[in-house]
Amino acid sequence: MIEISGLRKTYRSRKGSVTAVDGVDLHVGEGAVFGVLGQSGAGKSTLLRCVNMLERPDAGTVRVGGQEMTSLRRKQLRIARHGIGMIHQHFALLSSRTVAGNVAFALEVTGAPRAERKARVAELLELVGLTGRADAYPAQLSGGQKQRVGIARALAARPKVLLSDEATSALDPETTDSILRLLLDLNRRLGLTILLITHEMTVVKRICTSAAVMRDGRFVESGAIADLLRAPGSELARDLFPLDGPTAVDGATVVDVTVSGPEADEPIIAELARRFAADVRILGGSVETLAATRAGRWRIALPGGAEDNREALEFLRERGVLS
């Protein structure tokens, strides 16, 4: 649904130049929820704005739904953007318009007839849980309600792609959770493809099926969450499931075990202990439910050195769980 190749964007000023996005490749499949995780200044927002050409890249290509965005002229681009919704960190609502008026504005831009706008606004407000608030103004709404208006407006033209620019970072934890549940529900009910940027690991953990870690304009790692969890040295796996147990124990072999999917609920550690008559110690870890699957990581200690545990370690490798 979203294909980015060799994307590069540099900002120039009298003081010099800053490369915000430096040769990024990205694939977001249809119906996926893809999160780009990184700190402020990593290049996340520039990357997102290049998808709908609010920022023109200096190099590279962007395809959305098979359409080459970088080659479109102004009028063609305006039409193409109708298929790409966007929600913002600080809501970007029109203070002089009611809730209904803010949502209807997106339909006015597309030239939808008045009767169609009215019906669609009512449908969208019900979809995002704001029935009864159509005549309220933004100043009368909570942060979570404002973001629901922003989501409804982004969906007005029935886009297939939704871009989320730190949509929950201005919200408290409880409200953040409700907005993430709404986005996940919309993804599943509407088949919506979502590309979001965030600095919050909670967001990735709650709704993302795939993710990338971005730093200094580049992707450090990228892929399906289930695959990244198993990748040796994965930053995402480390941050999703921090292991606070010791990395070394006298007279023992310490290893990390990562599981996902059905095997997250299988007694792998118990089987390991029975099969090799080993007093396995669990030094730390947890199992949690992510958006796409159950997953977990443990740090365990096996008595003896690596050679003593050669068969046990081979067992873990064959099961594909040794990190």
Keywords for this entry:
alpha/beta, six-stranded mixed beta sheet, Rossmann fold, 33% helix, 323 residues, Alpha-Beta Plaits, 13 strands
What does this structure look like?
The chain is an alpha/beta fold. The protein folds into two domains: 2-230, Rossmann fold (3-Layer(aba) Sandwich), CATH 3.40.50.300; 242-318, ACT domain (Alpha-Beta Plaits, 2-Layer Sandwich). The protein has helices spanning 44-51, 74-80, 99-110, 114-127, 143-154, 173-190, 201-207, 225-230, 235-240, 268-275, 310-318; strands at 2-13, 16-28, 33-37, 59-64, 67-68, 84-87, 161-165, 193-198, 210-215, 218-224, 252-260, 281-289, 294-303. The chain is elongated. The chain has a six-stranded mixed β-sheet with strand order 6-7-8-3-9-10, with helices on both faces. Helix content is 33%, strand content 29%.
Q: Summed up, what is this model?
A:
With 323 residues, this protein is an alpha/beta fold.
Strand order of the largest sheet: 6-7-8-3-9-10
Portion in strands = 25-35%
CATH architectural label of the largest domain:
3-Layer(aba) Sandwich
CATH class of the largest domain: Alpha Beta
SSE succession: EEEHEEHEHHHEHEHEEHHEHEEH
Q: What shape does the CA trace take? A: elongated
Low-confidence runs (pLDDT<50, min 5 residues)? none
Topology:
Blueprint: E1 2-13, E2 16-28, E3 33-37, H1 44-51, E4 59-64, E5 67-68, H2 74-80, E6 84-87, H3 99-110, H4 114-127, H5 143-154, E7 161-165, H6 173-190, E8 193-198, H7 201-207, E9 210-215, E10 218-224, H8 225-230, H9 235-240, E11 252-260, H10 268-275, E12 281-289, E13 294-303, H11 310-318
Parallel strand pairs: 3-8, 3-9, 6-7, 7-8
Antiparallel strand pairs: 1-2, 1-4, 4-5, 9-10, 11-13, 12-13
Helix pairs in contact: 3-4, 3-5, 4-5, 5-6
